[in-house]
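User: Is it possible to get a 3D structure for a protein together with its bound compound? The compound here is cobalt (II) ion. I've pasted both below.
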Amino acid sequence: MLTRIDHIGIACFDLDKTVEFYRATYGFEVFHTEVNEEQGVREAMLKINETSDGGASYLQLLEPTREDSTVAKWLAKNGEGVHHIAFGTADVDGDAEAIRGKGVRVLYDQPRTGSMGSRITFLHPKDCHGVLTELVTSNPEH
Ligand code: CMX
Ligand code: CO
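Assistant: Yes, that's possible. Here is the predicted structure of the complex:
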């Protein structure tokens, strides 16, 4: 069951400048940064709020690490902006299978590693009314 907004993914050309915008404008501080080579991104997670199920909600600021990454391709076409939304669930495997059974393309056979040791998968935006949608089971150690 999808129980919360885990994060909103925002693509940017310059992560440091974008982090500074969110800090100076809204007072949001960086909770975590990492490079995910598989996804081709350098990212900063800004925690917005805790949630009632023990997870949290974040903004995920994304800068591409290589030209052939999905985010680099998207930025070249669209410029900066909202790239995807992510729903939190305790069971990404079960929810992905259930959604696949409804005829929505799930991009990975098995969930992969996301921010802070989470397990993630994506639904194709063309099957979701134009919204690239991520499912996330967070790692309880974070
Ligand atoms: N939101 C909405 N639509 C999108 C999109 C997005 N983020 N990315 C691509 N599309 C649309 C394109 O506009 C295009 O539509 P048209 O044919 O109407 O022009 C269509 O989908 C195909 O796009 P494309 O540019 O040819 O891109 P690809 O098919 O190569 O890749 C996708 C699209 C969704 C398969 C790819 O972006 C993907 O695998 N995404 C999941 C992984 C990811 O996004 N990782 C980065 C974030 C990591 C994280 O969150 O931790
Ligand atoms: Co994401």
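The radius of gyration is 15 Å. Residues 8-137 form a domain with the 2,3-Dihydroxybiphenyl 1,2-Dioxygenase; domain 1 fold (CATH 3.10.180.10).
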